[in-house]
Structure formats: structure tokens, C-alpha cells
Amino acid sequence: MKILxxxxxxxxxxxxxxxxxxxxxxxxxxxxxxxxxxxxxxxxKEIHSHAHxxxxxxxxxxSKIVHEVMKGRDVVVxxxxxxxxxxxxxxxxxxxxxxxxxxxxxxxxALKNKVSRFHHISTDExxxxxxxxxKSKFSExxxxxxxxxxxxxxxxxxxxxxxxxxxxxxPITISxxxxxxxxxxxxxxxxxLAITNLLEGKKVPVYGNGRxxxxxxxxxxxxxxxxxxxxxxxxxxxxxxxxxTEDISNLEVIKKVIxxxxxxxxxxxxxxxxxxxxxKYAINWSKIKNELNWKPQSDFDTWLNITVGWYKKNISWWxxxxxxxxxxxxxxxxxxx
Length: 337
Ligand code: NAD
Ligand code: DAU
Known about the structure:
Blueprint: E1 2-6, H1 11-23, E2 28-33, E3 53-57, H2 63-70, E4 75-78, H3 85-90, H4 93-112, E5 117-123, H5 149-168, E6 172-177, E7 179-181, H6 190-199, E8 204-207, E9 216-218, H7 219-232, E10 238-241, H8 250-261, E11 268-271, H9 286-292, H10 300-313, H11 315-321, H12 324-334
Parallel strand pairs: 1-2, 1-4, 2-3, 4-5, 5-6, 6-10, 7-9, 8-11
Bound molecules: nicotinamide-adenine-dinucleotide (NAD) and 2'deoxy-thymidine-5'-diphospho-alpha-D-glucose.
């Protein structure tokens, strides 16, 4: 099988490429990535000259390149996106450009080239926010209520993907997953930011009162879920993917990281809240469990220990990302914390 992967130099995409080459040795992967600030070929250096892997630097909004790389592909797994909520609040337009227009260009090319599956990676943020005390969870039938520019752009892309199935019969699947964590995640996101700041002896910024809740999914569990969907999922369907955490607040997550690293809780710094900050995400993943026999392989604490260990071992990897342009972003976001 020949697979086009978009955004494969980012966090989840690069984990997916490693996973797929290990588990599907007969397949050929082509990775199309623009290499924005979030794209990093170092994530893929071990497989850079693998006989079944090819990299093309390019923008999913560039229709010519997209049509070129789509030729002869059987399957598309679409990860490429602007992915950080805080950046979407600062600069929303690029989120529409990449996440909506880029997806549309890919859908057109996929249709023209008659791919047998277009899998779209989406997020639970399209469903909006649960109340902190609410017991229900997001599922495949939850209404769309995006509340940040990032979530709005992902919701729009989901609608286009579904429209290409309904209108043109493009064989699509969509997955809406919760917060991923694990190796190769950019230090702009909460868990890697906390780990790397603590390793540098810096404070960890916690928005608002730290009571917001996320549902944490280890990236390798996510990759196995995508595998199950590609292998056994039904076209036209959506699958929700989540982890094993129940109502864990951001503050509790940070305290766990501090404990693993043997640091002091005095390093927690409460900072002004994110505008429109979603209170809580929680995913009901019983559909993918019951229909495709997927579940996370380990609990949050086990995966968190492994993740912290990875960042401790790969200091030069994240130091290079905490460069001048990251510092500039950091100062703007956290007001010289
Ligand atoms: P990331 O920011 O780490 O990586 C995004 C990748 O896309 C980068 O390699 C970047 O260079 C590339 N890219 C960006 N714009 C591009 C363009 N115009 N053309 C080609 N490549 C481009 O993101 P991630 O965390 O790996 O997320 C991957 C996907 O999963 C995204 O679609 C995101 O919305 C979704 N998602 C992420 C999470 C999470 O917790 N990280 C959770 C749910 C869904
Ligand atoms: O739910 C899936 C989504 O998870 C993905 O679609 C997004 O691509 C991904 O970035 C992530 O979005 P979040 O906004 O939930 O992730 P982030 O790591 O930015 O923040 C996690 C929580 O921690 C959130 O409640 C905000 C809070 N936070 C974040 C940062 C960066 C802080 O308190 N301090 C921080 O410095």
C-alpha cells in the first residue's frame, strides 16, 4: 500500500511514521510537510533513508504539489495543521488557510486520484467544552460547538471531509481524539512545556486556577487507533479516541510531573487565563473499543513516566526548539514570566 502522510514531521505524524514502518513493513510512505516552526525532520532522522520512506517539503495549500504527491497513492492520512490554540488566538488567519483551505485542496486531489481511503485527524475541541461537574462525555454524536479559532478551523475541515463523502462518495474516515502527549511533542504544549521548564529550573505557567480538565491520550495508543481505523474502520464513519484519565486537572498533571522530576511545587506559577478557555474535555471511546477492539495499552502514570524519561534523555532535541523565535513567542504569551 502507498500512503500519503501530511504533516509527518510534526509530533503525532512523526510518531505515526515510526509506528507504521515498524508494523507494516510492506507499505510505502510519502510524507508531505511544509516544515513550519512545528515541523522537525530530526523526529525522523533514524528513518530518513529508509527504502520505504520519502519526504517532500511542501504546503498542503499548494495545489500543484498536492496533485503531484497524490498520484498513485492508495491512502491519505492527514495530520498537517496549525495545532496550537494559543497561537490561533494570536493569529487566526493561518489556521483557516492551512486547516480549512489546505484540507479542501487535499480532498480535491484525493477525489481526482481515486484514493481508497482519506483519513482525517481531528480533535475533540470541535465539540466545545463540558462543564467541570458534568458527568457526560463527548462521543461521535456530540454536536459541534467550537470555541477557539483553532477548534473552529478543525470543525470546518471535518465538515468538508464529511461533505466529500456524502456528495462525491470519497471514502473517508474521521477521528476526533483528545490531548496527546509523548515523545517529539513541541514544548509549546502543556506537558512538554512543564517538563522542559522544570529541567531548566524555570517556572511552569498554569492558566487561571489550573482546574481545567483534559483527557490525556498517549501518542502511541493514538497511532494504534488510527491503524485499527485504516485496517478495519467503516468508510463515512467517525471514531472518537481518548485515554484513561478521569477528571484530572491541569494542576494535578503538573504536580505529577514535578513529583517525577523531584522538583518543588513552588515552581508552579498561576498566570492569566486563556481567553475562551474550554473547561473540560472527556471522551467516550466505546465505539472504537466495541467495533474495532481498541483500547489504551497503559495508564496515564505509566505513559507520563516514560514521556518525562524521554525528555530527560533528549535534552538537545528540545533545547533546539526553545530557540530565539520560541523565546519571542514565549515572552508575548507569558509576559516575561
Ligand atoms: P504539530 O503542530 O506538532 O505538527 C503539525 C505538522 O504539520 C508540522 O510538521 C507542520 O510543519 C505541518 N504543517 C503545518 N502546516 C502545513 C502546511 N500548510 N502544509 C504542510 N504541512 C504543514 O501537530 P500535532 O500535535 O502533531 O497534530 C497533528 C494533527 O492532530 C493536527 O491535525 C491536530 O489538529 C490533530 N490533533 C492533535 C492533538 C494533540 O494533542 N496534539 C489532539 C487532537 C488532534
Ligand atoms: O484536545 C485536543 C487538543 O489538545 C488538540 O486538538 C490541540 O492540537 C492540542 O494543542 C491540545 O489543545 P489544548 O489547548 O488542550 O492543549 P495545551 O497543551 O495547549 O493545553 C492543555 C491545557 O493546559 C489547557 O487547559 C490549557 C492549559 N495550559 C496550557 C499551556 C500551554 C496551561 O495551563 N499553561 C500553559 O502554558
